[in-house]
Automatic annotation (TrEMBL):
Keywords: DNA-binding, Nucleus, Transcription, Transcription regulation
Full protein name: Zn(2)-C6 fungal-type domain-containing protein
PANTHER family named among the record's database cross-references: STEROL UPTAKE CONTROL PROTEIN 2 (PTHR47784:SF5)
Domain Zn(2)-C6 fungal-type: 19-49
InterPro entries named in the record: Fun_TF, Sterol_Uptake_Regulator, Zn2-C6_fun-type_DNA-bd_sf, Zn2Cys6_DnaBD
PROSITE patterns on file: ZN2_CY6_FUNGAL_1, ZN2_CY6_FUNGAL_2
Entry's Gene Ontology molecular function annotations: DNA binding; DNA-binding transcription activator activity, RNA polymerase II-specific; zinc ion binding
Length: 398
């Protein structure tokens, strides 16, 4: 017999027979939201409700949120679904194309281990990132987009086009959710937004590019991936606790260790690499505040050069190179988009550091892509100032 205290501790739950068929099969509580309940929305599966002797089905193609799935999932569901006709999991698994499951498997077994050399960071991408994706679909879409691009580099030629199509589809599905709602998402889902921004950066840098495809010089302003990456500052400033104790703690802790060493490395040790660009700024930038802005960017470059070039035993890592992109003043990025010669030349020196990251598949060749854009955008009279960084990365203008 239950005593009084145990009776008082029990919570009353309203039972309902009106939940969707999918939740009933999985024996989970359904919120009965129509046309699709929350759990079916998250899993991206059909949501069906029994009505008398007939069944009302909400088609995947009628979903209202681009988070839940992608058009590719719908188009291929009939031909690629798992051959399971009965059992509690048949509806859920039957709605997922095999290729989508392959991409998630590839992420956990392969891709997640290529984003860092640090075991604790690899583990975060392997285990924690998918967990975030299960409850935050725009993160899952970003994971699948990056996984598809990684598979593109490894698979046979006959599958590459399909990989690219899947990568683009998942990337666009994530962007359609985040881009118009970024302010609200930052407040409520800061960690997921940061993870999304990193994955978007990886996607942008690793996707195949044509010669005229801009990567750092946006046609209508700063490219989205760079905007999201620099936006991390806002998220981190509003939630310091998240970066130290949340799901992303392994990444930030690793970055803090390297940043400490980098910031305590004498910048003068890197001066030999940046003296020419510093000379250009002093000669060609007359406005005092603008000159100080560029000098700050060059000082940060000098610090990174000192860290990476000063000790050959140190392997270049994204936590040392890429932070420069969000540490520099906003004005430098604005001037870059305006194709101002000093900004273009400063970024050319940054390419020398990016070249050190060629060992990572998603950054391989990125320094050459950057340099090509900068060279084409720079007025011919200033191109001589690109000689040293171009030679340092082995880039030549054809």
């Amino acid at each position: 017999m239950l005593n009084a205290s145990s009776t008082q501790g029990r919570r009353y739950h309203r039972k309902s027979r009106n939940g969707c068929m999918q939740c009933k099969k999985r024996k989970v509580k359904c919120d009965e939201r129509k046309p699709r309940c929350e759990k079916c929305e998250v899993y991206g599966v059909p949501c069906t409700y029994a009505t008398g002797s007939t069944t009302k089905t909400t088609s995947i193609s009628q979903r209202t949120s681009p988070e839940s799935s992608t058009e590719a999932w719908v188009q291929k569901a009939s031909e690629d679904t798992l051959g399971i006709e009965s059992g509690a999991g048949s509806t859920i698994l039957g709605a997922l194309p095999l290729f989508t499951l392959e991409l998630l498997h590839h992420w956990t077994t392969e891709t997640s281990r290529t984003l860092s050399a640090e075991p604790e960071v690899q583990k975060m991408w392997q285990e924690q990132a998918p967990k975030v994706g299960f409850t935050t679909p725009f993160v899952m879409h970003s994971i699948l987009a990056v996984s598809a691009l990684h598979l593109y580099r490894l698979c046979s030629a006959d599958r590459r086009q399909e990989c690219l199509e899947q990568a683009h589809t998942h990337h666009m599905a994530a962007m359609q959710v985040v881009a118009p709602n970024i302010s609200n998402l930052v407040e409520g889902q800061g960690a997921a937004v940061i993870m999304f921004s990193w994955l978007t950066c990886i996607y942008a840098c690793s996707r195949p590019h044509t010669q005229n495809d801009p990567l750092i010089l946006g046609e209508s302003g700063t490219p989205e991936w760079l905007t999201f990456l620099r936006g991390n500052k806002v998220v981190l400033e509003s939630s310091r606790h998240m970066s130290r104790h949340g799901v992303l703690a392994p990444v930030f802790n690793n970055g803090d260790r390297r940043s400490y060493v980098r910031r305590n490395t004498p910048a003068i040790d890197g001066e030999q690499y940046v003296w020419q660009v510093r000379e250009f700024i002093m000669e060609h930038v007359s406005n005092h505040s603008e000159r100080e802005m560029y000098i700050k960017a060059v000082d940060l470059l000098s610090q990174s050069f000192a860290f990476i070039m000063g000790d050959v035993s140190r392997a270049a890592d994204t936590t040392v190179v890429m932070p420069w992109l969000f540490e520099i003043p906003d004005g430098v990025v604005d001037c870059l988009q305006q194709k101002s010669p000093p900004a273009l030349i400063v970024f050319a020196y940054f390419c020398v550091l990016v070249k050190k990251l060629d060992w990572m598949w998603w950054l391989e060749g990125l320094s050459h892509k950057f340099m090509g854009e900068l060279f084409n955008a720079l007025d011919p009279e200033y191109r001589e100032w690109l000689r040293w960084p171009s030679e340092a990365i082995g880039w030549t203008c054809l």
